[in-house]
Amino acid sequence: MEGGCWPYKYIALVSVFSCCLGFVAPVERRYVNEWAAEIPGGPEEALALADELGYDYGGQIGSLPNHFLFKHRDHPRRSRRSAPHITKRLYDDNRVSWAEQQYLKQRTKRGYVMNTDSEDLFNDPLWKNQWYLRDTRVNPKLPKLDLHVIPVWRKGITGKGSVVTVLDDGLEWNHTDIYVNYDPEASYDFNDNDKDPFPRYDITNENKHGTRCAGEVAMVANNHKCGVGVAFNAKVGGIRMLDGVVTDAIEASSIGFNPQHVDIYSASWGPNDDGKTVEGPGRLAEKAFEYGIKQGRNGKGSIFVWASGNGGRQGDNCDCDGYTDSIYTISISSASQQGLSPWYAEKCSSTLATAYSSGDYTDQRIVSADLHNDCTETHTGTSASAPLAAGIFALALEQNPNLTWRDMQHLVVWTSEYDPLANNPGWKKNGAGLMVNSRFGFGLLNAKALVDLADPKTWKTVPEKKICIIKDSDFTPRLFRSVDEITIEIPTKACEGQDNYIKSLEHLQLEATIEYTRRGDLHITLISPSGTKTVLLTERERDTSTNGFKNWAFMSVHSWGEDPAGTWTVKITDVSKRLENEGRIVNWKLVLHGTSTCPDHMTNPRVYTSYNVVQNDRRGVEKLTNIDEDSSNEQIVTEKPTENEEPEDPVKAKAMLHLLKNAFDREGAAFAEEQAKIPKTHYYHALQKLYKQSGAKDKGNNLYNDYIDRFYNRRPYKHRDDRLLQALLNIVDKDS
């Protein structure tokens, strides 16, 4: 069956409900003395209830109407045990329709008039190193390396009027490369409950992440400081919410902060990327997402940008992360300077697009502002990709402020580029003629194409979204063992003849409850009526949980643009073939999100052209032969060691592994005395050796995984940058 919106072809939009209906937490919960409650009577009844029951009233939760926070004065601030008797007392009050005790959540940070030649555009000292924004090729036949932003700037589009806030660990708003664009109305500190998001300083500069992400979006141009933000005239704010206790209420307050003022929310964090966590937004955070897309930006919908995750080395799958797996977020993955999928990137069917970031340890990284009014050239991971995307979306909103949240997703799908990433495996053409990949979504963001398509003179808002739910009311739980394959065929007319009929698909969700003795051995694929085969879940070696999945919504964008009418096929297998494994699929439903008519821009098929041709359509490409060399690159190895190459001195290599261990554990070893005479190339050799060991089949003797386990168990990390590379760079910086 063919699909597509152009004549004689059709598109179907399928979307997955965000995954808060039920999630499995693999770690023991820590409860706090705060309760969230929904009180339809409003703030007056909430205040009265607090007085009567002896609570401290914490006010409304973010922008959620009739949702309030209460603190119990006589209950411990933190406890391993919940207090169901207190929850029941709230629930039993006829003024309360819902109540829940809050618990700690682990979250990981995932980080004018123009001259002719790109190297002369700005006087900012690190502009020459922003390879992902400026075309650094010396030959027009070489692959392009940038996000095609300069042509947008040349049109005078620089982010004016757009407001971006970074949900993270704070923002050094008085930084001289940020202050001019700082927006206090887009900022708040939910860790200390005040209006100042300034980060907490410590000896390790742990809370640099939010400032780095904000700098990528809106560093000031032409001020002789650091580099240039993608949207260097946009306003940027910071929400400090990761440097302390993280609860569902704090997440909801952050996600829903000032939604009539903030346009774009950028988040480079999420549940642990450890290859064994399954978690999504709680009830409050999910409601904040829903409120944002329905009420934010005066009804046009808030735009949520999310880093897809850094668990690639741990075999993680971002379909097990309910934030990137949400239909409400634009999930952004990473590509390296070489146009390859980095070692840390995760594969999943929910990723929408890709931006550049760090790659191999010899590749350049991302430039931004840093703590203490400093600059950095070492921002890394999917943490660094998401803010670049947020900056591009800010440019699009200057071009067309009336874009809806779904318009933005359509623009991303229709303009992202397959060609720059074509050398990677996994590309397929779906039934609507769109190229898509579980590593990169629909490809590399193309700022010029996206902004051009968003032109208000020609862009037509996409049709109203419909939701079609398909389920078998007669389905009975099906048992299966490791040697079996469960196949479920789902015929549907996509709600034809009803108001919620879908002809053109966007997101798709398979919501299922699956019980199994070893969750990480499961593999789930979905085949659309057009024949598009999508992997909804890959096996995860480190996930030994017996909890299975409870009402978990596996989301895919891979059938975007297809007609969903026909037979869908679900296949569930155990790739391990461990004979002791067994379980059952308890229930399922297929949720399609899309439109009854074809969006205007999809009337004709997508035409893919060589991205180099697009890039060369500008002035000055032949003049890029005199680019200044980056003096900082002397510490980067230009020759990669071969697969079997060993460091020159095994004693020094052992010392390097020891140093990496200390850096990774942040034990504060005195590095200078140990490393002063060791060439920097040995650091990279040692790190490559460490990663080769991590890929070994002997999982029981895995140095890297041992570090990862201690890392997440002892001090949950909050960010989605390349943590081990940051440790290495700290050593190199000390040696310098």
At a glance:
By secondary structure, this protein is of the alpha+beta class.
Fold blueprint:
Blueprint (H helix, E strand, L loop, with lengths): L30 E8 L4 H11 L1 E6 L6 E6 L5 E2 L4 H9 L5 E6 L4 E2 L40 H5 L8 E6 L19 E2 L19 H10 L16 E6 L7 H8 L8 E4 L1 E2 L12 H13 L7 E5 L21 E7 L17 E4 L9 E5 L3 E6 L1 H19 L5 H11 L12 E2 L5 E2 L10 H7 L12 E5 L7 E4 L3 E8 L11 E13 L5 E6 L5 E5 L11 E8 L9 E9 L7 E14 L15 H6 L33 H16 L5 H5 L4 H15 L8 H12 L8 H13 L1
Parallel strand pairs: 7-9, 7-10, 8-9, 10-12, 12-13, 13-14
Antiparallel strand pairs: 1-3, 1-4, 1-5, 2-3, 6-11, 15-16, 17-18, 19-27, 20-27, 21-26, 22-25, 22-27, 23-24, 23-26
Number of helices: 15
Let me know the number of strands. 27
CATH topology of the largest domain: Rossmann fold
Q: Termini separation (Å)? A: 61 Å
Q: Whole-number radius of gyration? A: 25 Å
CATH architecture of the largest domain: 3-Layer(aba) Sandwich
The share of residues in extended strands comes to 15-25%
Helix percent band: 10-25%
Strand order, main sheet: write it out.
8-9-7-10-12-13-14
- State the oligomer: single chain
What is the average per-residue confidence, as pLDDT, rounded to a whole number?
84
What is the CATH homology-level superfamily of the largest domain? Peptidase S8/S53 domain
Low-confidence stretches: 7-26, 111-116, 614-649, 666-677, 694-701
Indicate the CATH class of the largest domain: Alpha Beta
User: What is the makeup of the main sheet?
Assistant: 7 strands, parallel
Taken together, the total number of domains comes to: 3
Q: What's the shape?
A: globular
Assign the structural class, choosing from mainly alpha, mainly beta, alpha/beta, alpha+beta, or little secondary structure.
alpha+beta
